[in-house]
Amino acid sequence: MLLLGPSGSGKSTLLMALAGLLDPSGGGESEGELVVDGLPPREARDRTGLLFQDPESQIAMARSGDDVAFGLENRCIPGDAIWPRVAAALDAVRFPYGPDRPTDALSGGEQQRLALAGVLAMRPGLLLLDEPTANLDPGGAAAITDVLLEVLRRLGLTLVLVEHRVAEALPLVDRAVVLEAGRGVVAEGRPRQVFAEHGDRLAEAGVWVPDRRLPSPPERTRPPSETLLLAEQVSFTYPGSRSPALPRSDVQLRSSEALAVTGPNGSGKSTLAMLLAGLLRPTVGSVVAGEALAPGRGHDAIWRWPASALARQVGTVFQDPEHQFLTGTVRDELMLGPLRTGVERPAARRRADELLDRLHLSHLAEANPFTLSGGEKRRLSVATALAPAPSVLVLDEPTFGQDRRTATELLALLAALRDDGRAVCFVTHDRDFASALADRTLRLPALQEAQLG
């Protein structure tokens, strides 16, 4: 079953409830009945397996085989039964290495296969997948889909899938169920029937309907551009690693221009974003400001700038939105950046309210940022980067977890900022979004290709 609906409609919450992970003592309200195999979900946990969006959040051990065995050991499976089940699970997902492979040496797609093996080793009857390909490049996503097809065919599991890559998910599912916030199920049936009968309404509500691309921003006359940031032969090696996370790269960010950074998982895209944002000191090379960004300070290494100056000029959206939340409410989160750069409180509040409205977060203004859905957290992280009105925006996967409506709104917002003279640099696996927004594309090769080159 494919579970569809706009961001905030309750898809991930339903998966968590089915997995028995919603603690009734933690607050909140519920109504109605939910059963798995005739039991309350908390009593049927041995029948369910949940795979999250981010595989790293489910990997606990240093060796791949130990990680798959971890859940079995916690369920007190006899020792002589554990390793045959580990081997069978790794084989089921076509894991390309042996059980001794270090987990920190795996690519994103390999991590997701390992996390799936850990779930399958528990032999669930109900498999719950929350956007399992969201963090993967198109090749990695296709590989996981192929693995899932084989697993479902061999093991005969019941699958409930939340996935924004709807077209790629269709071979996996027999039925589509559409949720809407506050209304529950609003459409149900065979996937192609649901899209044929309700496609227009679903697309308007924010569901990613197959064969409907994002609308491109209107044609524009590009104003003259100026160099705002320049990276020359920049590379970075993380502490304890013997090889660079990013091959030596030259990048120029110019005003009134959007640059898409693409490439396979593990090619260094996020590392490059952190370097361009001034949040990492390059191991090799330099990232410097242009005179147009910092008059009188051109050619200064931006990682040396004080935090207040950096926040005023460069806005950053991290791959994990929770890494940039600092306050107790959504509105305070949006006011924080402007206040720290010297904006008066009334003006900061007006700016926050404008962004709340633009990114459909007004109803969550007093909510704690950490209680939002994945898509809502992503929109808030984008809004916090925009709040100080920086000249350069560096965004890591800005459409991650977004429904069609909010992705369209985000596209229009970033295009307007670009046309207003900002430099926009965004890391993405979203080909449609890159095609609609980017003036230039930088594709980073896989590290193996870079090292051979």
Describe, in short, the structure shown.
With 453 residues, the chain is α/β, with parallel strands linked by helices.
Structure description:
Helices cover 36% and strands 17% of the residues. It is built from 15 helices and 14 strands. A six-stranded mixed sheet has the order 2-3-4-1-5-6, sandwiched between helices. Strands 11-12-13-9-14 form a five-stranded parallel sheet, with helices on both faces. The radius of gyration is 23 Å and the shape is globular. Mean pLDDT is 88; it is low at 449-453.
Quickly list its features:
453 residues, alpha/beta, 6-stranded mixed beta sheet, 5-stranded parallel beta sheet, 15 helices, 36% helix, 17% strand, globular, disordered C terminus
Helix and strand arrangement:
Blueprint: E1 2-4, H1 11-18, E2 48-51, H2 64-74, H3 79-92, H4 108-120, E3 126-130, H5 138-155, E4 158-162, H6 166-169, E5 176-180, E6 184-189, H7 191-205, E7 227-236, E8 246-254, E9 257-262, H8 269-276, E10 284-289, H9 307-313, E11 314-317, H10 330-340, H11 345-358, H12 374-386, E12 392-396, H13 404-419, E13 423-427, H14 431-437, E14 440-443, H15 447-452
Parallel strand pairs: 1-4, 1-5, 2-3, 3-4, 9-13, 9-14, 11-12, 12-13
Antiparallel strand pairs: 5-6, 7-8, 7-10
Helix pairs in contact: 2-3, 2-4, 3-4, 4-5, 10-11, 10-12
